[in-house]
Amino acid sequence: MSFVHTLSASRRTILLSLLLLFLAGIFVPSSPAADSLTIYSGRSERLIKPVLDAFTATTGIKIELLSSGTTELVNRLKAEGDRTSADLLITNDAGSLELARTAGLLHPLNMREVERAIPPQFRASDNAWVGLSGRFWIVVYNTTMVKPDQVKSLLDLADPKWKDKIAIPNSGSEYLQAGVSVIRATYGDEKTKQFLQGLKTNADSQVYQKSSQIVDAVAKGQVALGIVNHYYVYRHLAAQPGTPIAVVMPDQQEGGMGAIMNVAGVGIIKTTKRLDSAKLLVEFLVAQAGQKLFADLDKEYPLHQDVKADPALVERKSFRAALVPLSKLAELREPTLTLIEQVGLR
């Protein structure tokens, strides 16, 4: 069965429309390619596979996808060294890509297509990794239990008034680690530690491995509030439009740090023997049509300035992002993990 038949009717419509654009010349393969590529992916397969299927339909290049946790994949690449079969690494976190880059695992790129499409703050200094889609750490709330003006900052969730009323990711979440890293870089260790202690107390047993579980808990009124990446909320609303949940884009008040942003991204493995094909895939993913797939299918913010986000999302121009560079997330991670461990988040 082809990938088109495995998708919903709306997704089939989107993908077929985009494929027509590709065939019309929006994306045209520029060099001979290998028959297949192997990708190590830290992203959920259901989120990335439709985009990769569109690439295969356009170029004929098949994709072998190995999905696992991002940290496990980076460690696997280090262990495999030159023997790895991987051609590309896709992750849901810029910090993990930067760790792979500094470990010498990724191939620097000199590609005009990348530099034209993706602003420099969303890629490595040598283009060894390239951001593909943006996500913001937001507060999701149950509209029958909370008024939007009751929460202005992520740090508000440590207030004792939210005892037993919040749900949070577990300590192994790359989203949590990156978010706490930004808070540390902005406010310092002591204030961040107080925040984490408050989160631990207020969440108690409402600690989840999956962000979709947090959204479900808020939607069902099991808790009033949760911390997740924005797109989990909009995917839930797309599937269940009447759900009583909404989003607060936090830390927009005067003096606030701004919303915490991270990116999913891609890097080509330094030892790949299929460099031309790997570059074709990167070119595909950063092109307008590829970026539109991330926007329409996954409810993420496209990084290409000419591609609009889903209209259901908070307008990107209407809020500020935190100023901590994505490239710093890697060096911030270890001390952040130490702090999380000291507090005893599980």
- Give the C-level CATH assignment of the largest domain: Alpha Beta
Radius of gyration: 20 Å
Principal-axis shape: globular
Question: How many beta-strand runs?
Answer: 10
Give me some keywords for this one.
D-Maltodextrin-Binding Protein, domain 2, 346 residues, 10-stranded mixed sheet, single chain, disordered N terminus, 10 strands, globular, 2 domains, 12 helices, alpha/beta
Could you walk me through the main structural features you see in this protein, from its secondary elements to its overall organization?
The protein folds into 2 domains: 3-134 and 262-317, 3-Layer(aba) Sandwich (D-Maltodextrin-Binding Protein, domain 2), CATH 3.40.190; 135-260 and 320-343, D-Maltodextrin-Binding Protein, domain 2 (3-Layer(aba) Sandwich). It is globular and about 60 Å long. Helix content is 42%, strand content 16%. Helix 2 (45-59) links the parallel strand 1 and strand 2. Helix 6 (174-187) packs across helix 7 and helix 6 crosses helix 12. It has 12 helices and 10 strands.
Helices, strands, pairings?
Elements: H1 9-26, E1 36-41, H2 45-59, E2 62-67, H3 70-80, E3 88-91, H4 94-102, H5 112-117, E4 129-142, E5 166-169, H6 174-187, H7 189-203, E6 207-208, H8 211-219, E7 225-229, H9 230-239, E8 245-248, E9 260-268, H10 275-286, H11 288-298, E10 301-302, H12 329-343
Parallel strand pairs: 1-2, 1-3, 5-6, 5-7
Antiparallel strand pairs: 3-9, 4-7, 4-8, 4-9, 4-10
Helix pairs in contact: 1-2, 1-11, 2-11, 3-4, 4-12, 6-7, 6-12
